[in-house]
TrEMBL record:
Statement: the UniProt record of this protein carries the keyword Cytoplasm: no
PANTHER family per UniProt: CHAPERONE PROTEIN YCDY, DIMETHYL SULFOXIDE REDUCTASE CHAPERONE-RELATED
Pfam family, one: Nitrate_red_del
InterPro entries attached to this UniProt entry: DMSO/NO3_reduct_chaperone, TorD-like_sf, TorD/DmsD_chaperones
Record flagged with keyword Chaperone: yes
Domain of life of the native organism: Bacteria
Key words of the record: Chaperone
SUPFAM superfamilies assigned to the protein according to its UniProt record, in alphabetical order: TorD-like (SSF89155)
UniProt organism field: Desulfocurvibacter africanus subsp. africanus str. Walvis Bay
Protein name as it appears in the record: Cytoplasmic chaperone TorD family protein
Amino acid sequence: MKAKDWNSLIHEVPADRLLDVMAVLYLTNPSEDAVKVMSGLGGDDESSDVIDKVRLEYHDLFIGSESGAYIPPYESLIRERRMQGECSDQVREVFEREGFDPAELECEAHWKLMSAPDHLGFELAFLSVLLRSAELPDAERESLLAAARAFHDEHIATWAKEYGEQLLNTAKTVTYKTLGRLTMAVAEPGFLD
């Protein structure tokens, strides 16, 4: 798919739903359904018999391995080249101020044990919660949307494109190459406009 097609795609799907799907793929080992959806988006139907390969790649990319494919999805690692940097502290402060607790998300146990809140899956899930909350009756729509835009601009847009490029170039499966492309598109300025 060409870059302009990816930008069109991300505006065809409600932003909160797209962000939820992406967060799940960063935070959990993928289901067969997720692999089928991502393969279809990537324009290459990976058959269900590759699920073990995709699940192994999840571990190699995000958890760590000796394969050389490990690219941890943390803002502070991309922006500051260290864990638990200022980015991590800033994200923690925003999450606390807005009442968002990443430990309440459905995700692999090891992510809940990590004390770094600046994991890309957590950031995408948080952004999705803000957008969904803005649609609720009696919600302070404009302030929630302003908070979502500010978080996107100050955090996701500052590093996720670079991370998405790394994921696209490192991944071997269509599932994670597609996630890399979507990550790059979501990181673009104006994604929430």
